[in-house]
Amino acid sequence: MPNRIDGARLRGELVEPVGPYAQVDVVATTGSTNADLRQAVVDGAPDRTALVAAEQTAGLGRRGRTWASPGSGVYISVLLRPSGVPVAGVGSLSIIAGLAVLDVGDALGANVALKWPNDVLAADASGKCAGILSEAASSDELAVVLGIGLNVTRVREDVTVPAGALPPVSLAELGAATSDRTDVAMMVLAALHERETVWREAAGDLADAGMLDEYRQRCLTLGQEVKILTGGGSVIGDAVDVEPTGALVVEIPGGTRRSVFAGDVVHLRPTGG
């Protein structure tokens, strides 16, 4: 397979005792890496178990939507058991993952930015480069499956883009210094470990982890007029802040501020407008 992902190399550099992960498996294709690791939770897989796929056939995004995974990216899920983090702190984990992907983009020279809560975009908001999905898993102890889908090379033109969604864009198209998928997977897992370790030590508090101001600076959503689709309807207003829990603060007409913990955001005016 062209530009295949080298599992032996990832394990050699990332798995204990050399690296921080308990296990790193690589598959050519699977339905969903998150679904696979949700089953691994049931089977008792340890903290920091990772699965990397070169292709997904049934990848999922937020609210059950499909995530196109046509073999032009890396699709990574990590099982985390952050015993010292309260359930209320787990909501900020997707923000930590977004910062980790941003670290990789910055290191490779790709011009990327963040959209609350879980997307990595081209810095001009012209396309989506990565999606993140954090899911609590059924377990006797707190367990979270964190999935990252990252476009490394140009996505095929025949891939369907959902109505209203940004078109896909890849690290290569944004100027990344490499499109080697093993290198990119290695960098993502290393960056995620660095970010997640600090986050875990701070019990899930972004401010205590020293990452809240950084996120605010790189988040294109702040300062925007937004529409947020939630399970209970929608919220329209100005995105004015992000809380230490990861919640987005929206000022609605009349000046009332509301904290939104989850939802799909639509920017209602162009970035910088």
UniProtKB/TrEMBL annotation:
InterPro entries referenced in this protein's UniProt entry, alphabetically: aa-tRNA-synth_II/BPL/LPL, Biotin_CoA_COase_ligase, BPL_C, BPL_LPL_catalytic, Transcriptional_repressor_C
Keyword ATP-binding: yes
Gene Ontology, cellular component aspect: cytoplasm
Keyword entries, A-Z: ATP-binding, Biotin, Ligase, Nucleotide-binding
The keyword Cytoplasm is annotated on this UniProt entry: no
SUPFAM superfamilies recorded: C-terminal domain of transcriptional repressors (SSF50037), Class II aaRS and biotin synthetases (SSF55681)
Pfam family, one: BPL_C
Gene3D superfamilies registered for this protein in UniProt: 2.30.30.100, Bira Bifunctional Protein, Domain 2 (3.30.930.10)
EC numbers, comma separated: 6.3.4.15
Gene Ontology molecular function: ATP binding; biotin--[biotin carboxyl-carrier protein] ligase activity
Boundaries of every BPL/LPL catalytic domain copy: 13-200
Protein's name according to its UniProt entry: biotin--[biotin carboxyl-carrier protein] ligase
Organism whose genome encodes this protein: Prauserella isguenensis
